[in-house]
Amino acid sequence: MIRILFVCHGNICRSTMAQYVLQDLVEKAGLANQFFIDSAATSTEELGNPVDPRTRYQLEQKGIACGNHHARQMAKADYANFDYLIGMDSNNQRNMMRLLGSDPDNKVSLLLAWTGSCRTIADPWYAGDFAITFDAVLEGCTALLARLSAQIHE
């Protein structure tokens, strides 16, 4: 089983969007039993809060089920429990490393790096455009699944 943890600042917008987008993609690909997908925050600001309504709206507009996730903070133990820890921007990545201490197995990456891009996914909480965030998340998750599916089928 491939275990993926998506990480952003508050765990109510980008990381939860990525969690549910990738879950939808793996279900449609018939690979749901091959993956465990979760999300977490680097901060404590939103702990316990549900998915942002604007994120939920974007997912619903695309026919993607949004579960009953509540924000949690990433923990050092997540490094042992997940194969991939994927942040949305360089601030997330820096804060992930602060929480983890090190990345000896090269598990930490940025979502759009899976597309071959050095772009990051802007926080829609501040930028306000959840549709643009959705498009970037979908692009990253599609590339991620393509790469990981190839490994499953090797």
Write the layout of secondary structure elements.
Layout: E1 2-8, H1 14-28, E2 35-41, H2 53-61, H3 78-81, E3 84-87, H4 90-100, E4 108-110, H5 124-127, H6 130-152
Parallel strand pairs: 1-2, 1-3, 3-4
Helix pairs in contact: 1-6
Can you put this structure into words, describing what you see?
By secondary structure, the protein is an alpha/beta fold. It has one domain: Response regulator (Rossmann fold, 3-Layer(aba) Sandwich), CATH 3.40.50.2300. The chain has six helices and four strands. The chain has helices at 14-28, 53-61, 78-81, 90-100, 124-127, 130-152; strands at 2-8, 35-41, 84-87, 108-110. It has a four-stranded parallel beta sheet, sandwiched between helices. Helix 1 links the parallel strand 1 (2-8) and strand 2. Helix 1 packs across helix 6. The protein is globular. The chain starts with a strand and ends with a helix. The model has no long low-confidence stretch (mean pLDDT 95).
Briefly, what is this?
The chain is α/β, with parallel strands linked by helices and 154 residues long. It has six helices and four strands; from the N terminus they run βαβααβαβαα. The protein has one domain (2-152): Rossmann fold (3-Layer(aba) Sandwich).
The name of the CATH superfamily reads: Response regulator
Using the 3D structure, state the CATH architecture.
3-Layer(aba) Sandwich
**SSE pattern, N- to C-terminal:** EHEHHEHEHH
Biggest beta sheet attributes: 4 strands, parallel
Helix content: 40-55%
